[in-house]
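Predict structure. Chain length: 289.
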Amino acid sequence: MQFLVYIFLYPFIWLISILPFRVLYILSDFTYYITYYIIGYRKQIVRENLALAFPNLSEKERLIIEKKSFQNLCDIFLEMIKTMSISDKEINKRFVFKNLDVYLDLEKKGKSIALLCAHYASYEWVVSINKKIDFHGYAIYKKISNRFFDKLVRDIRSKFRATLITTKETIPTIIENHRLNKLGLYGFASDQSPKITSIFHWKSFMGVEVPIHTGAEMLAKKYDMNAIFLKTEKIKRGYYVASFEVLSDNVSQVPDYEITDKFIELVEKQIYESPENYLWTHKRWKHRR
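Prediction complete.
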């Protein structure tokens, strides 16, 4: 059954990938209408999340953010599919790393790097960094239940020489690379809610005290990796600028959870600047004090 679903949908996915961007965003507008007004995909979750994060705003103001966030969600989904056919020239024009030297200077220190980012703006196109760096890049993701679509997503995201590893593969991969003295860049999208069994640290996020993912910091400390934050800004539809900020180039000397806390504060700042570009459909505040 999984294969039949894949065979049926793949031609449509391929056709979407070769659409010109102008047509792609017309399709995105149509997808938004279906997703938001007809299906109502996770609309209640988004509404509850925005009420928690922005209690000072009126319902009308939050509704504006809500609708724009769904438009952004549809854009990101179709941009991910577009990655199948996008050229290096096109992606370099649409996703710019404006201070790549900050990251490259960190590479020169001879340690693997933990890159922390949020599910914000075009996080799917962050993988394009792999053609601009010397270290081998690993993008950590959650495995898809349909193994055929899982392979498709891996292939799409691996186009720019990134190696996708599941959350379960992350620690074994880091251990093996550490044993072989193989330097790598590990991408952690650490802004979502951890499993209840993996809670070690709580912090205020958007004014609500919640458990925070600490895996990136814990692994960086255990395997002596430097840590860096990647901020992505949406300039206009289909165009993004990413910038780096070093969280620590000596993680062993940083008090526990300080790197994680700094990351969360930077994500907060990013969201307050343009809340509509955040992925509000996740149950980020399902565990809270």
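Summary: The mean pLDDT is 93.
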